[in-house]
Amino acid sequence: MRVAVIPGDGIGKEVIAQAVKVLKAVSNKYNFSINFKEALLGGAAIDVTGVPLPNETIEICKNSDGILLGAVGGPKWDKLPGNIRPEAGLLGIRKELGVFANLRPAILFSELKVASNLKEEVLGDGLNIMIVRELIGGAYFGEKKRIGDKAWDTIAYSVPEIERVTVKAFEIARKRAGKLTLVDKANVLESSRLWREVVNRIAEDFKDVQLSYMYVDNAAMQLIRDPKQFDVILTENMFGDILSDEASMLTGSLGMLPSASLGEGNVGLYEPIHGSAPDIAGQDKANPIAAIMSAAMMLRYSFNNEEAANDIEKAVARVIERGYRSLDIMEAKMKVVGTEEMGNLIANEVSKFQIFKKI
Ligand code: NAD
C-alpha cells in the first residue's frame, strides 16, 4: 500500500503523526506493509518551494493509493494573494485528483453526548450519519458572471456527474444501515429534478437500499429535530457544504470528525475536517481523533480493509470509554491527555484487540 502523507501546517503536523502511528500499529497487527511518502502542501510548501502545490506533491499523490492530509493555512501566509495562498494548494490537489464524492460522517459517541448542542433524548445512544456531497460540480464550479448591477452563478449538473456520486452513495448505504436520503430542492430547481430522475433510475440496481427524498429546507430542520432518522444523505455541492457543517455541530467538536474525498477507482484523499488551528499549534493540545478516523476511512475505502478500519474505530471508542479526553472534549472527572498521548493510547488499544481467525 502506497500512502502519501501530507502533514501541511499548524496542528496538521501533530495530528497526522498520530494517524501514521496508528496505521503502523494496525499494519503490524495484520501483517501488511504501508509505504509512506511525505509531501509538502500549503504554507509548508510555500516556505520551501514558493508555491502551495508543488509538482512533486502532485506526482507523489498520483502515485499513491491513498493520501492522508492534515490541514493547511495560518497567519504567516494570510497576506499572500489568493492564488498562492495555502488554501489554493488544497483546492488544487482535490482538482488534480478528480475527487468528486466527499464523505463526511457525523459520529457522536454516546460518552460524548454532553459535547453536543442537542438534548439527550434527541441523541439517544449516539449518532452516526454519513453525508455524501458532490464535490466538483454545481454552483461553485458553474458559469458565473457579473454585469453592471447584476450577478449570477449557475447550478449545472450533467447525468454522468450525478451518476458517479450516486453509485458511491448507494454502495456506502449498502454497507451501513441501508437507507439513503436524496436531499434536493426539486419543487423549485430543474437541476434537482434531474438529480431525482438519475437517482431513481440507479436505485433499480440497489433494491436492498431504501431510498427517500427530502427538500433541503426540511432536511436542515430535521437534522436538528430528529437526526437519528438519517443513515446516508446524498446531496449536491452547495447543499452538502451547508448541511455537513450543520451536522458536524451536532457532534460537539471539530476535532472528532474525519472526511474522505473519493474519485474513480480507489483513489482517495483523507483529511480531518478541521483547519490548522494556529491558536493551539505546537502545544500538544490538538485532538488527533479526526485524523486517526480519517486513516480508518482510508483503510475502508481505498484499501477495502474493513477489519482494520473497524479496529481503529473501536480503539477510539474504547479510549473514550476509559475516560481519556483531549482538551476540546474535556468534561469533569475525565483524564485530560495531549495529542501525543492520545495517539499512543489509541495505537496501544489497536494492538490489543484479538484477531479472530475463521476455522
Ligand atoms: P480551525 O478548524 O483551524 O479552528 C477552529 C477552532 O477549532 C479553533 O479554536 C481551534 O483551536 C479548534 N480546533 C480545530 N481543530 C481542533 C482539534 N483537532 N483539536 C482541538 N481543537 C481544534 O479553523 P480556523 O481557525 O477558521 O482556521 C485556521 C486556519 O486553518 C486558517 O488558515 C484556515 O484557512 C485554515 N483551514 C484549513 C482547512 C483545511 O486545511 N482543510 C480547513 C479549515 C480552515
Description:
The chain is of the alpha/beta class and 359 residues long. It has two domains: 1-104 and 257-359, Isopropylmalate Dehydrogenase (3-Layer(aba) Sandwich), CATH 3.40.718.10; 117-250, Isopropylmalate Dehydrogenase, CATH 3.40.718. Helices cover 42% and strands 20% of the residues. The protein contains twelve helices and 14 strands. The strands form three sheets. A ten-stranded mixed β-sheet has the order 2-1-3-12-11-4-5-10-8-9, with helices on both faces. A two-stranded antiparallel ribbon has the order 6-7. The protein has a two-stranded parallel sheet with strand order 13-14. Strand 1 (2-8), helix 1 (11-30) and strand 2 form a beta-alpha-beta unit. Helix 1 (11-30) packs parallel to helix 12 (339-352), helix 6 (159-175) packs across helix 7 (190-203) and helix 8 (216-225) packs parallel to helix 9. The protein is globular. The two termini are 27 Å apart. The model has no long low-confidence stretch (mean pLDDT 94). It binds nicotinamide-adenine-dinucleotide. Nicotinamide-adenine-dinucleotide (NAD) binds at residues 11, 15, 71-74, 87, 90, 254-255, 271, 274-280, 286-287, 290, 328. Nicotinamide-adenine-dinucleotide is lined by residues 11, 15, 71-74, 87, 90, 254-255, 271, 274-280, 286-287, 290, 328.
